[in-house]
Design brief:
Helices cover 24% and strands 37% of the residues. It has two domains: 221 residues, PmbA/TldD fold; 208 residues, no CATH class. The protein contains nine helices and 17 strands. The strands form three sheets. Strands 3-2-1-4-5-6 form a six-stranded antiparallel beta sheet. It has a five-stranded mixed β-barrel with strand order 7-12-13-14-17. Strands 10-9-8-11-16 form a five-stranded mixed beta sheet, covered by helices on one side.
Length: 448
């Protein structure tokens, strides 16, 4: 079951290293084995106030091998793909396995879960970007942002990044496949100043294909406008009020949900959504769908980290949790089957049957807090207690009244999910979780 990669030396080298690792594992008597070889390369530059702060080029390569002797497991890795280095890594993994305790759940995934047909998802779009060109793009981005308003007096910099990764995975079940993928981004963070107050904000664009990035000027202008909009920020008195999360902030709420329904959280019984499959976790109008095969998707993958086929699935349907996010190990611990999520979720689409425009969401909120930035990590994955620093805008009668800073928003995630009032149509596609704005009926806002 072999899927050919693009015909270049890197792919051939990786395939050869994986094959050799599996052959060596079998020669040492391993009952099962798997190996993953990869190479990544990229360029990143940062410019601040027109001057180059950093220029980084990286090229990383490595191989990880895991062997099983019955239910005993050993693993080792190397950054050297030569035959000698691979052979030594396999020997070390086998030595480790002979001294580890048996784990009844250890082993490769079930053969029937392996990916059979591996689609081309159009993930590989290299950006032939020279350092001087990247620096020019970053300067254009920052310059456009700085020119938005005279109140923009400083910069935290503009950055340009391009990355390409090629990976090959194989195991002793006969699976050997790999693919290449790229990711590119441009970002800018600016500081505005007025009447002794300074505020910062940022913007970014990200895509697999560099032709689908926003222009550097558009990114800089958005960052500048956002920074200026925050001038005159005030604190609030402590109160309870509706809270509207901007798309890039709402994504974090969904990430906490994914963490709670992951296999490791479930079998360790360390989740505020323990044994929640089949329960209504969200209002009936909320749906969440995993779509791993979106062309050029930032979370797309033809198979997961252990070779399992990735498939479309409904994670939330009618507000009801349909199942967990599982690799083969956690699935066995729970008496279930892998969902093809070893390594994480793949393109989670969050939406509703009747999404609202941003203006309609503000109108529906009436009076409340529109959150555009979150700070801190005050989230307890076991209890669901949620408390984070926030800033954004206070809204009255559906209209923005003034910017807000230095407040804390708090609640319990399980209750917050149930209290979602509406979702927006402004889906942010710059990540694995594609999420729109999200309006919650009420949260505690702690201020003065």
């Amino acid at each position: 079951m072999s899927q050919a990669l693009e015909p270049h030396a890197t792919a051939a080298t990786l395939e050869d290293a994986v094959r050799y690792a599996l052959e060596e594992a079998a020669r040492h008597g391993a009952t099962e084995a798997e190996a993953d070889a990869s190479v990544g390369q990229g360029l990143g530059v940062t410019v601040r106030l027109g001057e180059v702060e950093t220029t980084e080029y990286q090229r990383d390569r490595g191989l990880a091998v895991t062997v099983y002797f019955g239910k005993r497991k050993g693993a080792a890795s190397t950054a050297d793909l030569s035959r000698e280095a691979v052979r030594t890594s396999v020997q070390k993994a086998c030595s480790i396995a002979r001294y580890t305790a048996e784990d009844p759940y250890a082993g490769l995934l079930e053969p029937q879960a392996l990916a059979r047909d591996i689609p081309d998802l159009d993930l590989d779009h290299p950006w032939e970007l020279a350092a001087d060109t990247a620096i020019d793009i970053a300067r254009r981005c920052e310059r456009a942002g700085m020119s938005v308003d005279a109140r923009i007096t400083n910069s935290e910099g503009a950055s340009v990044s391009t990355q390409r990764h090629t990976g090959v995975y194989g195991n002793s079940l006969g699976f050997l496949a790999g693919f290449s993928g790229t990711s590119h981004s441009v970002s800018c963070s600016l500081i505005a100043q007025q009447a002794g107050q300074m505020q910062r904000d940022y913007w970014f664009t990200a895509a697999r294909d560099p032709l689908e990035l926003e222009s550097p000027e558009a990114v800089g202008i958005a960052a500048g406008r956002r920074a200026c909009a925050r001038l005159g920020s005030r604190k609030l008195t402590t109160r309870r009020a509706p809270v509207l999360f901007a798309p890039e902030m709402a994504r974090g709420l969904v990430q906490h949900f994914i963490g709670a329904i992951s296999g490791s959280s479930q079998y360790r019984k360390a989740s505020f959504l323990l044994d929640a499959a089949g329960e209504r976790v969200f209002p009936a109008f909320v749906r969440m769908s995993e779509r791993p095969h979106i062309a050029k998707g930032l979370g797309s993958a033809p198979f997961d980290a252990e070779g399992a086929a990735t498939r479309d699935r409904e994670l939330i349907d009618g507000g009801v949790l349909q199942g967990y996010v599982l690799g083969s190990y956690s699935a066995r611990r729970l008496g279930l089957k892998t969902t093809g999520n070893a390594g994480g979720i793949h393109n989670l689409l969050v939406g509703s049957a009747a999404p609202r425009s941003p203006e309609a969401l503000l109108g529906e909120m009436g009076s409340g807090l529109w959150v555009t930035e979150l700070m801190g990590q005050g989230v307890n994955g076991v209890t669901g207690d949620y408390s984070r620093g926030a800033s954004g805008f206070w809204v009255e009668g559906g209209a923005i009244v003034h910017p807000v800073h230095e407040v804390t928003i708090a609640g319990n995630l399980r209750q917050l999910y149930q209290n979602i009032v509406a979702l927006g149509e402004d889906v942010d596609v710059r990540g694995t979780i594609r999420c729109p704005s999200l309006l919650i009926a009420e949260m505690t806002i702690a201020g003065d």
